[in-house]
Write a structure and sequence with these properties.
259 residues, mainly alpha, MetI-like fold, 11 helices, MetI-like, membrane, transmembrane helix, cell membrane, transmembrane
């Protein structure tokens, strides 16, 4: 028991030290951000953390958190629905890869935020352009990792499926998809990080809820302590989402190894 407690203490010591250094740097930056004492006080860690406790306690922040999580979930579902089939086509069809590869690479290198004006003109103001921007940002890592997974498959598996007279759909369902699931999960984890980064500026696009809207609103109201609280929440949520994506990937890998 004592040894287990020591191991947990050792594991917690370094993250706690990192958090302490981060708070110290935050306090130092706040002291030099402006010559106005009121602004320096508003940006200080104690002001931001106090505002965070008040916002969570009053329930004001929870609807924004819920809407941001809903949007990222919808966008990731769309990215999986589009990215996995496209990745399979890229990996299984050299002709499709030659025809579409340059176009996909070109589109992938265009910042999703560059599409903001066009998204608003085509889809109007509201949820649709936000979901479009998030989906556009998250589809590429899923698609490209799926294609890489197909390329990494052992050719003997494909020959075995062919020798057993498996149809193309049976080969995809029972050989290709199970064989490249680890690559798909890696792409999904990358997509979570990219989508969460794009979410905040995308939510400044004519919506009235979400963490991006909350940050923009606090800036307009000059509520800098609440702005810092919002930044802390965005970072914490992103950390949790990445942890969940890693946990899902690790769990699946362990299941595959046991199987």
């Amino acid at each position: 028991m004592m040894q287990g407690g020591k191991r947990w203490a050792a594991r917690l010591a370094w993250p706690l030290l990192g958090m302490a250094i981060t708070l110290a740097l935050w306090a130092l930056a706040a002291r030099h951000i402006s010559d106005v004492e009121a602004i320096r006080s508003a940006f200080a860690p104690q002001a931001g953390l106090k505002a965070l406790a008040q916002l969570l306690g009053s329930g004001e922040l929870w609807p924004h958190i819920r809407m941001s999580l809903e949007r990222i979930a919808i966008a990731l579902a769309l990215a999986l629905a589009i990215g996995v089939p496209l990745g399979l086509c890229l990996g299984l069809s050299p002709l499709f890869a030659r025809i579409s590869g340059p176009t996909f690479q070109f589109l992938r290198m265009v910042s999703p935020l560059s599409w903001m004006p066009l998204a608003v003109m085509a889809l109007g103001v509201g949820e649709a352009p936000v979901i479009f921007l998030l989906g556009f940002a998250t589809v590429w890592p899923i698609m490209l990792n799926t294609a890489a997974g197909v390329a990494a498959l052992d050719p003997a598996w494909m020959r075995l499926a062919h020798s057993l007279s498996a149809t193309r759909w049976e080969t995809i369902a029972r050989v290709v998809l199970p064989g490249c699931i680890s690559h798909i999960l890696t792409g999904f984890r990358l997509a979570v990080g990219i989508g969460w980064i794009v979410l905040v500026p995308a939510e400044m696009l004519g919506v009235s809820s979400g963490m991006g809207y909350f940050v923009l609103d606090t800036r307009d109201r000059l509520a800098y302590d609440e702005l810092m609280a919002g930044i802390v929440v965005i970072g914490c949520l992103g950390f949790v989402l990445d942890w969940l994506a890693r946990a899902i990937s690790s769990r699946w890998m362990q299941r595959g190894q046991r199987g």
